[in-house]
Specification:
Order of helices and strands: HHHHHHHHHHEEEE
Strand order of the largest sheet: 1-2
Number of helices: 10
Strand content: under 5%
Radius of gyration: 30 Å
Helix content: 55-70%
Structural class: mainly alpha
Low-confidence stretches: 235-274
């Protein structure tokens, strides 16, 4: 095994970067044109294609990933993505509420073991894969080869579930009751409960950020006069008295001394580094 003493330098290829940028722009505008042409004959399919292009651009530029949002809270204390997801859910809630008020039929799902089992499998999967459904998509397109295999496993797993769903669905989902919270709380009550839960989640996230990962406290700079007063000779435990020099016209700057001992024929040598 060879020990790496220093990182290899990064090589930049401006010509290759420009060519790839032009190719990406050609593909992007081709997809926009394809969506517009499709919308002329089949509006739903064309709009779905255009919304898909916009959604992909949004999640790539914003680096939206539910895995990163929850993982960063525990590892680094970074809560920006978690707060962004909460605000995004608040915006989508008022959008869905508006469509329901306009007469669109809401989609009510089953409340059974499928929710618990699916949530656990999803949680283990995103931790092992390092990304959620949105995260692996834009990372795979960015060229991270690891997420190509994540996407392949996602497609294989979804295909297997669809193949066996008819036999599994009665025990996991379809035989259980559908819970309609709109019928329980009403449209405005449901919206109020949703925003109340999102507010509680936001308070917990902010509290976690402030208590577990507080910002560092910076000490105030020493005044010039005090620095000059404390710039006298100091006693070194090894080499006796040493004077710390000061430099600068407007403010004092202390020098850090690195003491280096080397065995030589004549004795020991001391070196000071600023």
């Amino acid at each position: 095994m060879q020990k790496v003493s220093q990182p290899s330098p990064l090589t930049q290829k401006p010509d290759q970067a420009r060519r790839r940028f032009r190719l990406g722009m050609v593909v992007f505008f081709a997809m926009i044109a394809w969506g517009l042409l499709t919308a002329a004959d089949r509006p739903k399919l064309g709009l779905a294609l255009l919304f898909g292009v916009g959604f992909g651009l949004l999640i790539e530029r914003a680096q939206i990933c539910f895995t990163s949002a929850f993982r960063d809270m525990w590892i680094t204390g970074r809560t920006n993505m978690a707060k962004a997801i909460i605000f995004g859910m608040a915006a989508s809630a008022i959008g869905i509420f508006s469509y329901v008020q306009l007469g669109m039929e809401p989609k009510i799902m089953w409340a059974g073991p499928n929710a618990v089992i699916g949530g656990l499998l999803f949680g283990f999967g995103i931790v092992l894969a390092g990304g959620c459904e949105t995260g692996w998509m834009y990372r795979a397109v960015e060229g991270q080869v690891h997420y190509w295999w994540v996407g392949l496993g996602n497609v294989i797993g979804s295909t297997i579930l669809a193949y066996y769903w008819d036999g599994l669905s009665p025990a996991l989902a379809t035989s259980w009751d559908k819970i309609n919270l709109l019928a329980t709380f009403g449209p405005f009550g449901g919206l109020l409960v949703t925003y109340l839960l999102l507010l509680i989640a936001l308070i917990l996230v902010i509290g976690w950020e402030k208590t577990v990962f507080p910002p560092p406290v910076l000490s105030p700079p020493r005044p010039l006069r005090k620095a000059h007063e404390n710039s006298g000779p100091r006693l070194s435990p090894r080499y006796g008295w040493r004077t710390l020099p000061l430099s600068g016209h407007r403010h004092a700057r202390s020098h850090a001394f690195a003491e280096e001992r080397r065995d030589s024929g004549s004795g020991q040598r001391l070196s000071a580094v600023d």
